[in-house]
Design a protein that fits this description.
Layout (H helix, E strand, L loop, with lengths): L2 H8 L7 E4 L5 H17 L4 E5 L18 H10 L8 E6 L9 E6 L4
Parallel strand pairs: 1-2
Antiparallel strand pairs: 2-4, 3-4
Length: 113
């Protein structure tokens, strides 16, 4: 992604060509749904998609080891860097506030082969 397009994306000026809302799903449902969505989006020629994860619930932090807020928010970027999605994804960044902010990611896809 060139610098000009990246700047537009970060300012929320580029409109995502597709979106998936994983918000509220379990890990077991979200992972296959994300794989299907990303691979289908790439196959149809889309370049910029929005993945909504939500920010996660605020829970009681009772233990000595802090638990991260938002399981999907933390897991989705990892999934996008692992096969089979790593071959389709060019770049991942947090979405602009107008597209969900910290509860969503822009995923810039490679051109289909």
């Amino acid at each position: 992604m060139d610098q000009k397009a990246f700047g537009k994306m970060k300012r929320g000026k580029l409109v995502p060509e597709g979106r998936i809302d994983l918000h509220g799903m379990t890990l077991d449902r979200a992972h296959p749904a994300l794989i299907r969505f990303i691979l289908a989006s790439q196959a149809s020629g889309k370049r910029l998609v929005l993945v909504i994860t939500g920010k996660g619930r605020k829970g009681a932090d009772d233990g000595p080891i802090p638990t991260p807020r938002g399981i999907l928010k933390n897991q989705v970027p990892q999934w996008l860097t692992m096969p089979p999605l790593a071959h389709a994804v060019l770049q991942v960044s947090e979405a602009h506030i107008s597209h969900g902010g910290a509860g969503a990611y822009y995923v810039y896809l490679k051109r289909p082969r």
